[in-house]
Design goal:
The structure holds 2 protein chains of 2 kinds.
Chain A: E1 9-14, H1 19-22, H2 25-35, E2 40-44, H3 50-63, E3 67-72, E4 88-93, H4 95-99, H5 106-128, E5 144-148, H6 152-163, E6 167-171, H7 213-221, E7 226-229, E8 232-238, E9 244-250, E10 255-260, E11 262-265, E12 269-271, E13 288-290, H8 291-301, E14 317-324, H9 341-355, E15 361-366, H10 376-385, E16 389-399, E17 404-410, E18 415-421, E19 423-428, E20 430-432, H11 440-445, H12 450-465, E21 488-490, E22 493-494, E23 510-512, H13 522-545, E24 560-561, H14 571-575, E25 581-583, E26 589-591, H15 601-605, E27 611-612, H16 618-627, E28 640-645, H17 649-658, E29 667-672, H18 680-689, E30 693-698, H19 712-720, H20 723-729, E31 737-741, H21 749-764
Parallel strand pairs in A: 1-2, 1-3, 3-4, 5-6, 5-11, 6-7, 11-23, 13-19, 14-15, 14-19, 15-16, 28-29, 28-30, 30-31
Antiparallel strand pairs in A: 8-9, 9-10, 12-20, 16-17, 17-18, 21-22, 24-27, 25-26
Helix pairs in contact in A: 2-5, 5-16, 6-7, 6-13, 8-9, 9-10, 16-18
Chain B: H1 3-11, H2 16-23, H3 38-42, H4 53-61, H5 65-69, H6 82-86, H7 93-106, H8 115-130, H9 135-143, H10 148-157, H11 159-167, H12 185-204
Helix pairs in contact in B: 8-9, 9-10
Classes of the chains: A alpha/beta, B mainly alpha.
């Protein structure tokens, strides 16, 4: 069709699943056509079956339907059956939202029907504000994966992506592939003892094994799909998934620019600096070594015994200090535990049993022995079986001398002890090789008064201007508006969502893998790299089709703004949790579709309401708020607007209804993509229209957030702090508007929150704004 | 200090753990203990032990030879087997405790007047006479283990129980004269003697 097609609105009412029994379908049909002003209204006894869907498809083809409302179950049910992308479509939830949420009694019949009628009016209002979403076409299919870091994680990611048919650019800062693993003598075994292996002291248990890194390096070098850049770093990354432009520069300054589809950052870790631990006296003796230096000693030993560095004497006793500088509450030490240090020390203690004989005393001083992973407990037993001594003790001090004196406190025997050993190995923690955190400056400001804020900003500027100050080097050098690198989650590790999407970061199309994400061993890093490679591939294909990544997977809509209305306030560019929005030369926001996760936080941020999606906007929700019938005051039927996050709160309400938990008949629930997309105007409009109460249900915010868009619910909470002014100006009670954190498991609590609001309204009376 | 004890100290100068592994029954299991403490928590007499099993195992590894071998902790074990049943690493803890006790006795390190040790000795001697335990004599030797006066007192205290046992034919006064035994007492004694010789020869290595 070349000419602009005329809009044709259709509503389809499903009468299956008991809808037809509980509700007057004729009245629903009338509501849709009369109040909803739909051009076409049809009923079907089971809309989600082949016939029902075919009926809709036929109407699109033959009747020219361009906009459809499916009046049936929740938008979270029958997603595949109603996967209709070629027209604008919305779902009106009268199954979970109405009949299942209400008791099947004569008294409830009237309010239940009203509820259904309202939801139909609301959806019919919404669909008129919607358009069919279509991708921007900003990027095509780019099958190139950039892997940053040539260690075991980076190489695994490269091999996995290459094997799947994608071409890989592997950038390594040093002159050789292999990273830390190439320097290891042996690795912790990958497999546990066979099932049925007895607990006896002579059982056949796993032992340290070859690292396998040489094979991996030659596999990478021999793979035609992988191009390796040694001695190289990333000097600039611009664009978005599907159209990244990456400058790869060598030490000498030669730069190649590559077009990249998606990025895996596998920059690994460095060891915590032992010089910060004065009690262990690392600088005081060459015989006090780090866990990585221990590997070098083992490599140097060849087939002979391991010798101590100071005088080359064969080591007859060695002591391992576990968790050195880890799990500490002291400011400059690591607040976390690498988790794998005990496995590593068992492995290294076994080196001595192998190279220096059974007579070599090997003692591991641990506090909490943790041996995670498949071989874990068996490897611990393997150490015990081979005569490694484990003592639960605090090492207090190491005194250098002809042999080292280790002063410790035995925690089982509650006894101070001193032992003399030839060599001490410090189990140091893993520190991620992350770039600078784009949000570090913001976080420092949180909770400060204005004065402190000004001081902190000044100090930050001074630090930035000071050329002598140590600055963390950027890894990706992104030219994003919101900083050069992946944001950190905790302790400098690049973030991901621990519950919902462990592989995603806050920069779409850039995936962190390996110890830069959290401390892990070789085996875990290889699994992690495989996952990251799969995500990178997925993002390449998503970007090619203009589809969103998690959690709105497949969403084709993306935000645009009305330039004439924009005041260049920059709120959208600052508040976007994913750094998706840049600024163009004229300082207008510049959207990057493939970086966007479609949460709508920008939409909620915009004070002049010029940002919208084709199928989700201030108007689509505004129309739903307006179309709901507000009964006269003397009807004594309050209306409670519930703006529910579609990821957690909305499914919690659905689940409540499925489980038979009653939901107040006064509630009118509108799903929002994220509470961060909530516009203050919705609240104002709702109050002006005569709603008696408003509940905003978002996800948990803060450090252990559960918001699928990371910062959305936090932003909403911040913005809604100002809602008090609106209530005051309308002369309304502050209890009428509440923001609640609701988890997907809150199936009893979510309906209770609505009931609480109904009770509050009964106490303070209906809104005076009903006209 | 017994000669054997001196020899053992010399042999295993620094490593009490190796000494235990070589000389204590089931001693090779000690290194497999993971210090979870389930044994100590499961022992019905645990609170009466100076060092519960978990601690004994740690002391062995820490080289606390004297403290372990002169301790009366392992003598407190009543062989209820709770620890063995519960040990996640399946250590034969009860056996190790008895092994340690036996080893301590061999080295002459048992605490003075340790009642369990004394009982064990009386029991052994009683049984070796006829190859069967003579309950009457065992009871009497126990009563009189601390002397004649306390023996009479103890015997009178238990006289009602004794009468009842007689009535129920659980004990016979005739046992006092000789008592029952196995068919081939001398054969048994020879066998035990041979075993003792082998054990002594093993230990002799260290003299």
């Amino acid at each position: 069709m070349s000419e602009v097609a005329e809009k044709k609105y259709a509503a389809y009412i499903c009468t299956g699943c008991g809808i037809g029994d509980r509700l007057d379908a004729g009245e629903l049909e009338q509501t849709a056509s009369r109040d909803g002003r739909m051009n076409l209204v049809k009923q079907h006894e089971m809309l989600c079956n082949k016939e029902g869907v075919q009926m809709i498809r036929d109407d699109i083809a033959n009747e020219g339907v361009t906009h459809a409302v499916i009046i049936a179950c929740s938008r979270r049910a029958k997603v595949e059956a109603f996967d209709i992308n070629d027209i604008a479509m919305t779902r009106c939830n009268i199954r979970e939202g109405v009949i299942w949420a209400r008791p099947d009694t004569d008294e409830a019949k009237e309010t239940t029907q009203e509820m259904a009628n309202d939801y139909i009016r609301m959806s019919c209002g919404e669909i008129k504000q919607m358009n069919k979403p279509s991708p921007s076409g900003q990027q095509g299919r780019n099958p190139n994966v950039l892997v940053v870091g040539g260690g075991v994680t980076g190489m695994t990611a490269a091999l996995e992506a290459a094997e799947a048919g994608y071409s890989v650019h592997l950038v390594e800062k040093t002159g050789a592939l292999g990273g830390h693993v190439a320097k290891l003598h042996k690795r912790v075994p990958f497999k546990a003892a066979p099932v049925g292996t007895p607990n006896s002291p002579d059982a056949n248990l796993p032992m340290p094994e070859d690292t396998g890194i040489a094979d991996m390096i030659s596999a990478v070098e021999g793979n035609d799909n992988i191009k390796v850049y040694l001695n190289s770093t990333i000097t600039k990354t611009s664009g978005a998934p599907g159209r990244f432009s990456v400058d790869i520069s060598t030490e000498s300054g030669d730069t190649t620019t590559e077009n990249i589809g998606s990025i895996v950052q596998a920059t690994g870790f460095k060891l915590y600096d032992p010089e910060n631990l004065p009690e262990f006296n690392y600088a005081g003796s060459p015989d006090i070594v780090t866990n990585l230096e221990m590997e070098e000693l083992a490599n140097a030993a060849g087939d002979g015994p391991i010798k101590r560095p100071s005088d080359g004497k064969e080591v007859t006793s060695v002591l391992f200090v576990q968790d050195a500088g880890q799990n500490s509450s002291d400011e400059d030490r690591l607040p976390y535990d690498s988790g794998i240090g005990d496995l590593v020390s068992i492995k290294q203690a076994l080196y001595f049993k192998h190279h220096n004989g059974d007579g070599c005393d090997t003692t591991i001083c641990y506090n909490n022995l943790r041996t995670p992973g498949a071989p874990g407990e068996d490897f611990y037993r393997s150490g015990q079986k081979n005569g490694v001594i484990f003592t639960k003790s605090d090492v207090k001090e190491i005194v250098p001398g002809d042999s080292l004196t280790v002063k410790m406190h035995d925690k089982i025997l509650d006894d101070d002890a001193e032992v003399k050993v030839d060599l001490v190995v410090l189990d140091l923690g893993m520190v991620p090789n992350s770039g600078p955190d784009p949000y570090a400056a913001n976080e420092a400001l949180e909770g400060m008064t204005d004065e402190e804020r000004a001081e902190e900003l000044e100090a930050q500027e001074a630090h930035a201007a000071d050329e002598t100050s140590v600055k963390v080097e950027s890894i990706l050098n992104l030219d994003y508006r919101q900083g050069t690198d992946l944001p950190h989650l905790k302790h400098g590790f690049t973030d991901s969502h621990f519950i919902c999407f462990p592989y995603e970061t806050r920069r779409t199309g850039i995936y962190a893998a390996g110890p830069v994400r959290r401390p892990m061993d070789i085996r875990q890093a290889m699994d992690d790299a495989t996952g990251a490679a799969m995500k990178a591939i997925q993002e390449i294909e998503n970007a090619a089709q203009g589809r969103a990544a998690h959690p709105r997977v497949g969403d084709l809509s993306y935000p645009t703004f009305r330039k004439e209305g924009c005041t260049q306030c920059k709120r959208c560019t600052v508040e976007c949790p994913f750094g998706a929005i840049d600024e163009d030369e004229e300082r207008y926001p510049q959207y990057n579709e493939a970086r966007c996760r479609r949460c709508g936080t920008c939409m909620g941020a915009c004070p002049v309401r010029v940002i919208s999606f084709e199928n989700y906007s201030v108007n689509t929700v505004g129309a739903q708020i307006k179309e709901c019938d507000i009964p006269e005051e003397w009807d004594e039927k309050p209306r409670i607007l519930v703006l529910a996050c579609e990821n957690d709160a909305y499914p919690a309400l659905d689940q409540a209804a499925i489980s038979g938990v009653e939901i107040s008949p006064w509630a009118r629930v509108i799903p929002v993509r994220c509470l961060g997309s909530t516009s203050l105007s919705w609240v104002t409009d709702a109050l002006n229209n005569g709603y008696d109460g408003i509940i905003m249900m978002g996800c948990k915010r803060g450090d252990d957030y559960q918001c699928h868009f990371v910062r959305g619910s936090a932003m909403a909470n911040e913005r809604m702090a100002k809602v008090g002014d609106t209530l005051e100006s309308l002369n309304l009670e502050p209890e009428r508007v509440v923001v609640e954190e609701v988890a997907i498991t809150d199936i009893d609590r979510a309906p209770q929150l609505i009931q609480d609001m109904a009770d509050t309204i009964e106490k303070i009376g209906l809104s005076p704004f009903k006209f | 200090m017994s000669e054997l004890n001196k020899a053992m100290i010399e042999q295993y100068r620094n490593s009490f753990l190796s000494e235990v592994e070589a000389n204590v029954e089931e001693g090779e299991w000690v290194k497999m203990c993971m210090q979870c403490g389930v044994c100590s928590g499961s022992c019905p007499l645990g609170k009466h032990w100076a060092h519960p099993p978990q601690e004994i195992f740690m002391m062995i590894r820490a080289g606390k030879r004297d403290e372990v071998l002169t301790s009366d902790s392992m003598w407190m074990c009543t062989s209820c087997y709770n620890c063995i049943v519960r040990c996640p690493r399946e250590l034969p803890i009860t056996h190790i405790m008895h092994g340690l006790a036996t080893y301590a006795r061999k080295l002459g390190l048992v605490p003075q007047n340790q009642p369990t040790a004394k009982f064990a000795e009386i029991f052994w001697n009683n049984m070796m006479k006829k190859g069967r335990v003579n309950e009457l004599k065992l009871g009497l030797s126990l009563y009189f283990k601390d002397g004649f006066g306390p023996g009479i007192k103890e015997a009178l205290r238990n006289k009602d129980l004794g009468m009842k046992m007689m009535k129920a034919k659980r004990m016979a006064a005739s046992e006092f004269f000789g008592g029952h035994g196995v068919k081939d007492v001398s054969g048994l004694q020879k066998m035990i003697k041979k075993a003792q010789e082998l054990e002594d020869a093993r230990m002799k290595k260290f003299d």
